[in-house]
Design brief:
333 residues, alpha/beta, Rossmann fold, 2 domains, five-stranded parallel sheet, 13 helices, 11 strands, globular
Length: 333
């Protein structure tokens, strides 16, 4: 059973409510039908009900009738959502008139449904740019208590089983925050550990990466990683975290034992936390292409509720997989 199949099995026992703002997009509605058929989640489709039913008939989708369909133009909770939007954004100058227009945008409606507790998570991006998906989420769903930064983790499936957890590793941040402070990097490490438990399904051994191992180099960039490691351990003492470690010391047992003797993480890391987005993004793409690894993600972490963004080039299977992942995140929260 591969990773996504394991995630699907886990999602089946959770049945979280996942809202899909792009309810009339072809791949999205086909993915929704599969999710409903396989019992991976409860589905909320946003879109014109007549158009959704027409598409279901056109594509021979037999399970869309199990979905909850929310019409953004004629929603019985419209005023309730408008009032919530104004309450949350009054300090930013949002007026009821502006909110009344925004709530008819499926991306804003989906975010408000999550904020109001009418959905447990959201998946979008098949037909919208990342910025358009995340803007309503940042404005209304916001981050978890005690967390100020959103980051993106990739589940890396590496053909060589000697690495990580029999070839499975988690990399972060590879998608969102360009140059985190020590405090932000600590938050990224803790959120990545929790993502690892909730989705990858194994106990994280987190390496805080640098170009130095245990003081082998002196630089303010190294100092940031050292401080982030200390703060991360304080934030969540249940997590196994060590740093600063060079990449080879983190993943190669012999090198880890030589460069960081006594470390419980060195040479055994299954989670790599990179000091900047530049390093993380370059690293995951090099591993993906040169080691022929499968990169699943990004899985957004740090939000008060899971909001995940698709690539506009995604497949139906990609959407099904991300819905299952989002369901597992929602359940863990």
């Amino acid at each position: 059973m591969n990773f996504i199949e394991k995630v699907k099995e886990k999602a089946k026992g959770q049945m979280q409510r996942i809202v899909l703002p792009e309810g009339t997009e072809e791949r999205t509605i086909k993915a929704a039908d599969i999710v409903l058929k396989e019992g991976l989640a409860e589905i909320i489709l946003i879109g014109n009900p007549d158009e959704i039913h027409h598409l279901a008939s056109e594509y021979y989708l037999d399970h869309i009738g199990k979905a909850t369909i929310v019409d953004p133009k004629n929603n019985p909770k419209k005023q309730e959502y408008i009032d919530l939007m104004v309450k949350l954004r009054a300090s930013k100058g949002l007026t009821p008139e502006q909110a009344a227009k925004l709530i008819e945008d499926p991306l804003y409606l989906g975010a408000i449904m999550v904020k109001a507790g009418d959905a447990d998570g959201e998946v979008a991006g098949a037909d919208n740019a990342t910025g358009d998906v995340l803007r309503p989420a940042f404005q209304y769903v916001k981050t978890m208590p005690g967390v100020s930064v959103v980051s993106g983790a990739f589940i890396m499936i590496i053909p060589d089983k000697m690495f990580g957890e029999e070839g499975m590793m988690v990399f972060a941040d590879c998608a969102v925050h360009p140059n985190p402070t020590a405090a932000e990097l600590a938050q990224i490490a803790v959120m990545t550990g929790r993502t690892t438990r909730a989705i990858a399904g194994f106990e994280p051994r987190i390496a805080m990466l640098s170009f130095s191992t245990k003081g082998s180099a002196k630089n303010e960039m190294v100092d940031k990683v050292v401080e982030a490691t200390r703060l991360a351990k304080e934030m969540d003492p249940s997590l196994q975290i060590d740093g600063e470690l060079q990449a080879d010391a983190a993943i190669i047992p012999g090198i880890g034992a030589k460069k960081a003797p006594g470390s419980a993480i060195a040479g055994k890391a299954n989670v790599l936390v990179f000091p900047t987005l530049e390093v993380g993004n370059i690293s995951y793409k090099l591993v993906q292409r040169m080691a022929h690894a499968e990169a699943i993600g990004p899985v957004l972490q740090g939000m008060a509720a899971p909001i995940n963004d698709l690539s506009r080039g995604c497949s139906v299977d990609d959407i099904v997989g991300l819905i299952a992942i989002t369901s597992c995140q929602a359940s863990a929260k």
